[in-house]
From TrEMBL:
Pfam families tied to this protein: NAD_binding_10
UniProt cross-references to PANTHER family, sorted A to Z: FLAVIN REDUCTASE (NADPH)
Domain NAD(P)-binding: 7-196
Protein name: NAD(P)-dependent oxidoreductase
Signal peptide annotation: none
């Protein structure tokens, strides 16, 4: 199976690339700076997410979007998502899996209050979380083959790989220790596992893991 990873040189993208290769997928990195890739053996498309075309993506079975908008340009989450939706409307057999945010997870059964709207949500993260939430809403309203994967609130880039995780859907939840936690490594495994499992087509899911 052919997989492309947008933002493969980033922290999450690097681990997603490693996990996809471990699971024997053929991986192409879509990056602006190939020199930053940890794995130089993968194929590369050297482009910005905003410059991608249908021609660039038509050979892939799955495209993973691990793009992170820079600070001060958080609305790029919305514009980049709309650009991908426009492309994938012409790629009906290609699946888009998005590395999302925790802020859009619901904290109530009625699905009226998101984590980003709760009183204790850090102000510094609100621009990213609110714009990622709007990007999620665009996906949810689209007719493409999308999946959106929200991490736990504490998304730990230095946490160890346990190889274990628990899955949820639209709601914020915690691990056995009462913590909303997942390491980048366990998140990456859960996402790549979903390519095979196909449990969340045109749905959002989330996950937590235990601290090692």
């Amino acid at each position: 199976m052919q997989i492309a990873i947008i933002g493969a040189a980033g922290k999450v993208g690097t681990l997603l690339t490693a996990e996809a290769l471990k699971q024997d997928y053929r991986v192409t990195a879509i990056v602006r700076h190939p020199e930053n890739l940890a794995n130089r053996s993968v194929k590369v498309i050297e482009k910005s997410i905003f410059d991608l075309t249908v021609e660039d993506l038509k050979e892939f079975d799955v495209v993973i979007n691990a793009y992170k908008a820079p600070q001060g340009s958080e609305t790029d989450h919305i514009t980049s998502t709309q650009h991908l939706i426009d492309l994938f409307q012409q790629l009906p057999k290609t699946r888009l899996i998005v590395v999302g945010g925790a802020g859009s997870l619901y904290v109530d059964d009625a699905k009226t209050t998101r984590l980003v709207d709760t009183p204790d949500f850090p102000e510094a993260y609100k621009p990213t979380a609110s714009n990622m939430g709007k990007a999620f809403d665009l996906l949810a309203a689209s007719n493409i083959q999308w999946t959106y994967f929200s991490p736990a609130a504490f998304f730990d880039d230095t946490g160890a790989a346990t190889g274990q995780y628990r899955l949820g859907k639209d709601h914020f939840f915690t691990n056995k220790a009462g913590e909303s936690y997942i390491s980048y490594a366990d998140y990456s495994k859960a996402l790549i596992d979903e390519i095979k499992n196909q449990d969340f087509i045109r749905e959002r899911f989330t996950a937590v893991s235990e601290k090692a």
